[in-house]
Amino acid sequence: MKVGIIGAGNIGATLARKLAAQGHEVKIANSKGPASLADLSRNVGATAVPKEDAVADVEVVILSIPFGSYPNLSKIFQNVPEDVIVVDTSNYYPFRDGSIPEVDAGKPESVWVSDHIKHRIAIPVAGNDPKAKSVVMNLVEETGFDPVDSGELVSSWRQQPGTPAYCTELTAEQLKAALEAADRSRAASIRDALIKQFMEAGAPVSHDDMVARNRAATT
């Protein structure tokens, strides 16, 4: 499968490496241009390209950029065919992205993104198109995880920061229960409290500690 990835941070780079290792043809782009990705592309087996090329002649586009940057991508999606699947891996953090009134008022993050890039989006693994969601779930499985169908985009708030399903590393059955247990009225306050904890920690928070704190705060 031909896959374009925009964003070369921890998530984008990891997905590029895993998908290329599975035999997919991967193109990767960032905001700085392909020259800045020379070492990464060589190491992971992907091709570094400009953002505009990452969405051309591909079957799936994966977006792994800061949430507030999505409006900047509107132009490059204007000519992307409707049958191209778009996967959004980002989450909204006001301290980083700035306040977004629509999202603060309750619009699911995935719906806000879809409104800005004017394209169908599949979020692992929430999406409105069953065929697109099936493709993404297969990609998730290929990267070594168990995909769980979490419904349509309007329900994707159940997997956003501050919910029991976010950053808690659960089994498939546990994740299904966590999605059901999500409390929309508490999610934003839990998200902000956790970020405050992490920022006040004084030292980098380990992966295991981050998971433990997310579990403790959302149970």
Can you characterise this structure?
The chain is of the alpha/beta class and about 220 residues long. The chain has two domains: about 1-155, Rossmann fold (3-Layer(aba) Sandwich), CATH 3.40.50; about 160-219, no CATH class. The protein has ten helices and seven strands. A seven-stranded mixed beta sheet has the order 3-2-1-4-5-6-7, with helices on both faces. The chain is globular and about 45 Å long. The mean pLDDT is about 90.
Question: What is the structure about, briefly put?
Answer:
The chain folds into 2 domains: 155 residues, Rossmann fold; 59 residues, no CATH class.
- Spatial arrangement of strands, main beta sheet: 3-2-1-4-5-6-7
CATH fold-level topology of the largest domain: Rossmann fold
The end-to-end span amounts to 39 Å
Give average pLDDT, whole number: 92
By CATH's scheme, which homologous superfamily of the largest domain applies? NAD(P)-binding Rossmann-like Domain
The total count of strands amounts to 7
CATH level-1 class of the largest domain: Alpha Beta
What is the N-to-C order of secondary-structure elements (H for helix, E for strand)? EHEHEHEEHHHEEHHHH
User: In angstroms, what is the radius of gyration?
Assistant: 17 Å
